[in-house]
Amino acid sequence: MALKDEISKAIAAHGMWKTRLKTAIATGTLDTPIEKIRADNQCAFGQWLYGTNIAPKDRASTHYQNVKALHAEFHKVAARVAELAQKGDRAGAEALMSLGGEYTAVSSKLTQAMMQWQKEAA
After folding, report:
1. What are the backbone angles phi and psi of residue 33, rounded to the nearest 5°?
2. What letter would DSSP give residue 33?
């Protein structure tokens, strides 16, 4: 699949995490183990990002390096939200997901970086 298509799928999939995490906060239960959430190579985009289907020139780009780093950070913060939700710390989890929260900031930066990479992809 083309780089642009993979990025489009990733933007949509990572956008759905917000809904999944809000459900976890409301219910205190998770649909995915925290360690799997934390790992940035377990989702479909992460598997593609670490896989062999990306051209060497794309892998060497600053876009790739930026997206890879932000993607890893996104998964770390999402796992923190999930941990707090599972422990019943709704206030803490909601703070991370609030407008000024770390999850929202990292998610926004990741989406912007993916969109920029997609825009400049050949």
Report:
1. -60, 145
2. -
